[in-house]
Amino acid sequence: MATSSPSEEQLSPNVQSSRPEINTTFTITAASSEHELPSTWQREYNTAVSAGLSSLVSTFVGFPFDSIKTRMQAYRFQSVLDCVMVTKKTEGINGFFRGVGAPMISVTIVRTLSFSIYAQCRATYTDALNRLLGEGYVVDPSGPVLLTPEQKATPGPNLLRALPVYFMSGFTAGGFIALFSCPFEFTKLSTQIELLMARATHAALLDASHTAPKYEPKGTLESFKDIIRKRGILGLYSGFRYHFARDALGTSLYFSVYESSKQLFSMYNPNGGPPGPLVIAISGGLCGIFSWAVLFPLDTMKSIVQRDILTRPPGTPIKKRPFQLFNPRMYRGLGVSIARTGLVNMTFFSIYEQLYKKL
Q: What's the chain's average pLDDT?
């Protein structure tokens, strides 16, 4: 997470001690310009580059898990192992990475936007709460790397007051990026299950274990263009309400758990200092696992609805499905999804924090 640049008040004592009094005002302004402008640009650059590169690596590492999760949500398999074996037998190793192109692009852009929007909203909502409830009610939640005296004196109450800031900032960021990510996710799902749809169509039922005549996959770009040809631009936003709810709520939980975990580890660290690599990895894994575990039924519903749309001709009425929270089918693929999100986010935040420091 980005840290704040030095303020004019912090810089002024050093400047005043090294300059004649007559030049104090000018010198402070000049010093502030030199420090604030480059540091602001540097923070934005570091965040964008770190999030982008970390996303490329973590998305590629976790994609096979995501592919298995999507297949199990959309079609019937006896177990995770059955899904893996069927995919390997019918599609080879490439089947686990089918559709990886879309998320490699979208997740990189989405993560960069998400972190930038989240940071801006966090500062805005903190200022709004302090204006409403009194200055200093919430200490600017810039993460636990630099703990303020207020946080050290009353870590628990301040963290509780900061949680709504984390949650609403994440909700805003997630809701905004859903507008961008939905077309990529819908294309990814189409690419991931296109062979399953072909086999299911051939067998006249939704069973992915049936064999079918040789089928040549379209690939990510062709799937994207095919959706537009058949359904128009708005077809890329099929199932958007489920996608929006998942992303907005998921991102709010994601950042809330990550920020809170880092702060808690740091607050109760007897040695003091910033969180180490292990704390970063654990916090990253926890935020991904918790947010996915809570919202997994909603993600399953999204996959089922989008599959229904893809398997029917454009304009055909889609059967309305009730949201069955306690139906075991809604949790199909939960285990592999937990493993995926834990691995992906441990990898992402471990690389992100190290890159940010080095840059």
A: 77
Q: Name the β-bridge partners of 207.
A: 76
Per-residue b or e along 82-109, where b marks 16 or more CB atoms closer than 10 Å to that residue's CB: ebbebbeebbeeebbebbbbbbbebbbb
Spell out the SS3 assignment of the chain: CCCCCCCHHHHHHHHHHHCCHHHHHHHHHHHHHHHHHHHHHHHHHHHHHHHHHHHHHHHHHHHHHHHHHHHHHHCECCCHHHHHHHHHHHHCHHHHHCCCHHHHHHHHHHHHHHHHHHHHHHHHHHHHHHHHHCCCCCCCCCCCCCCCHHHHHCHHHHHHHHHHHHHHHHHHHHHHHHHHHHHHHHHHHHHHHHHHHHHHHHHCCCECCCCCCCCCCCCHHHHHHHHHHHHCHHHHHCCHHHHHHHHHHHHHHHHHHHHHHHHHHHHCCCCCCCCCHHHHHHHHHHHHHHHHHHHHHHHHHHHHHHHHHHCCCCCCCCCCCCCCCCCHHHHCCHHHHHHHHHHHHHHHHHHHHHHHHHC
CB–CB of 208/199 below 8 Å? yes
Bridge partners for 76 per DSSP: 207
Res 33 pLDDT > 60: no
| pLDDT tens sequence across 131-176 | 898 877 777 645 433 445 655 666 677 788 889 999 999 999 999 9
Tokens describing residue 8: 């004019």
Residues sharing a CB contact under 8 Å with residue 202, sequence separation 6 or more, in sequence order: 210, 212, 213
pLDDT tier for residue 5 given thresholds of 50, 70 and 90? very low
Taking CA atoms, 351 is separated from 51, 330, 344, in Å, by 9, 32, 11
